[in-house]
Amino acid sequence: MGKDSKAKESSSGKGKGKQSSGGDENASKGKGKSGKAADGLGTCTYVKARHILCEKQGKINEAYKKLEDGWLSNGDKVPPAEFAKLASEYSECPSGKKGGDLGWFPRGKMAGPFQDVAFSTPVGATSAPFKSTHGYHIILSEGRKN
Q1: What are the beta bridge partners of residue 31?
Q2: Beta carbons within 10 angstroms of residue 85's beta carbon
Q3: Is the pLDDT assigned to residue 60 strictly greater than 50?
Q4: Can you tell me the distance from the alpha carbon of 91 to that of 140, in angstroms, rounded to the nearest whole number?
Q5: Confidence (pTM)
Q6: Measured CA distances, 146 to 36, 47, 62, 121, 142 (Å)
Q7: Alpha-carbon distance 17 to 117, whole Å?
Q8: What's the pLDDT score for residue 18?
Q9: Of residues 23 and 49, more confidently modeled
Q10: If we measure between CA atoms, which residue out of 30, 9, 31 comes closest to residue 21?
Q11: Where are the beta strands (DSSP E) in the chain?
């Protein structure tokens, strides 16, 4: 599928989130009856996420550095409440007032790279900064369901 290559391009290749290098990587993973990966990435219908949106790349990088310094560099997951504080401080999206909370949204509602990253980031993980038509984003995946 083309979405893995888009997610790789849009996440700047920093290795955060799920990124496929192609080849036989998925051949060794457990698969369900449908032949799709058992980890649920890319197979769910809805995602619950928070995000930070900034017009300028420097500002999103500053927010991401705070996430790295506080949690990511240690291999820890960012607590949603802490992500919400940063979203309130940095995000230029109206959702920033709600801690970046986008709630549940279906596949097809969000545009291009945002959807690709949102649906490929494992629950509890934080994406690397990426660019969309609206600006620069960081996504915290909070849930997925069908």
Answers
A1: 37
A2: 14
A3: yes
A4: 13
A5: 0.72
A6: 14, 9, 34, 16, 14
A7: 8
A8: 38
A9: 49
A10: 9
A11: 46-54, 101-106, 130-132, 135-145
DSSP element (H, E) containing 133: none
Q: What are 105's strand-pairing partners?
A: 47
Of the candidates 79, 70, 76, 125, the residue with the CA atom closest to the CA atom of residue 138: 125
Residue whose entry in the numeric block shows the structure tokens 């290749």: 13
Q: State how far the Cα of 132 lies from the Cα of 144, in Å rounded to an integer.
A: 22
Q: How far apart are CA 74 and CA 130, in angstroms?
A: 21
Helices (H), the chain: 3-10, 57-70, 80-90, 112-120
Amino acid at 10: S
The dihedral through the CA atoms of 85, 63, 89, 133 has a sign that is negative
Residue 93 CB coordination number (10 Å): 18
For tokens 């969000």, name the residue.
110
CB atoms within 10 A of CB 49: 26
The pLDDT of residue 25 is 34
